[in-house]
Amino acid sequence: MSAKNLKFNSKTIHGGQHPDTAYGAVMPPIYQTSTYAQTTPGGHKGFEYSRSANPTRTALENSLASIENGNYGLAFASGLSAIDAVIKLLNPGDEVISTNDLYGGSYRLFRQVFEKYGITFHFIGMQSVDAIAEKINGNTKLLWVETPTNPMMNIIDIKSIAELAKEKGLLLAVDNTFATPYLQRPLDLGADIVMHSATKYLGGHSDIVVGALIVKDKELADKLYFIQNASGAVCGPMDSFLTLRGIKTLHVRMQRHCENGEAIAQYLKNHPKVEKVYWPGFKDHPNHTIATAQMDDFGGMISFIPKGSSFEDAIGIVENLQVFTLAESLGGVESLAGHPASMTHASIPKEEREKSGVVDSLIRLSVGIEDVDDLIADLAQAIG
Ligand SMILES: *Cc1c(COP(=O)(O)O)cnc(C)c1O
User: Is the pTM of this model over 0.90?
Assistant: First the structure.
């Protein structure tokens, strides 16, 4: 049976994988090598230099393609280097439309690195497809979507935007870091490129920094492969191995992230000292209908605002947490708490930040897979 026909929970383990050809190792060995012996110039077994290709990275790239229902995967040194490769498809004068509560590092890369090269970026509320259509002009080449958005948990309708992108001849890229293919598969919904910070849920253990791109189209894959090799921000063999190992348990981890996430979202919603909770699983979430249509569950990312609290109060709460660790990042087995205004989103000007709802008292949780009773008890003592 071809791995293409397997269900998702089997693809995470077997998709694109086969025992190693040398000794039958079930896990691909960590081919910690830069170069490969040739019998005659050009006479090699498909690998000549590890920037161009490495067998451990190839195993990961095949797994990535399989779990996202794509045909080609590319593994990078970080999520941002994967995004960097996509923007390098563009030329000076080209324009990009993206969301106004984008991951802070993506925003910084767009504004502070690529604008210098004559590429223009527009940041809008992408929950409205009409608003996107209005921004499109003759120079627009790429739509960059992140959903759920970070940290406001807005849901953007991938399928409708894919239809608009097709009609206008634009590329659509979706940062699928928060949802993972366990919850949503953008290529199936019509996107051209899926991007991951595999640092987060795919790796899942807070022990690597890795990025990924997955596409269906051969021509697009060739262009991205050219940039990956030419610019050289590749994922190393050790990190490729660890990402592969993470992916094998993605489905069981995600199931627990979703269960714990739901319990904590409900707990916070009923808490008398909590003003507002952002989680797409609530029936009264403004994009709940789209969330239900394009996602299989709602994930473990939650943001909330404690009642009447200031910058200092919010910092007090995150400092008081004992099971949740105060840290950047998300998607690992351990629960993390963050304060976007001073951490992940500090590189976005306060005025821009607040326009999209990232107020000074907002707290973001990445709910891990610990016993949920311990997580709730920790929140109870920290909120007071
Ligand atoms: C972390 C993150 C990135 C950047 O990835 P790195 O692996 O840190 O370079 C991009 N997008 C989202 C949504 C992220 O959470």
Answer: yes
Nearest to 266 by CA among 275, 250, 284, 279: 279
Rounded to the nearest angstrom, the distance between the alpha carbon of 249 and the centre of ligand 1 is: 20
Please enumerate in sequence order all residues whose Cβ is within 8 A of that of 364, keeping only pairs 6 or more positions apart, or say none: 150, 151, 301, 302, 303, 330, 337, 338, 339, 340, 344
| Tens of pLDDT, residues 331-368 | 999 999 999 998 988 877 888 788 888 999 999 999 99
252-383 fold: Aspartate Aminotransferase, domain 1 (3.90.1150)
Q: pLDDT of 86-103, one tens digit each?
A: 999 999 999 999 998 889
200 as an active site residue: the answer is: yes
What number of other Cβ atoms are within 10 A of residue 367's Cβ? Answer: 27
Q: Is 75 in the pocket of ligand 1 (CB under 6 A)?
A: no
Q: Where are the domains of the chain?
A: 3-247, 252-383
How far does the centroid of ligand 1 lie from the alpha carbon of residue 16, in Å? 25
Distance from C-alpha of 160 to C-alpha of 366, rounded to nearest angstrom: 28
CA of 153 to the centre of ligand 1 (A): 15
23 noted as active-site residue:
no
Q: Is 78 in the pocket of ligand 1 (CB under 6 A)?
A: yes
Active site annotation includes 175 = yes
CATH of 3-247, one of 3.40.640.10, 3.40.50.1370, 3.40.50.2000, 3.30.565.10: 3.40.640.10
Which residues lie across from 143 on neighbouring strands?
97, 172
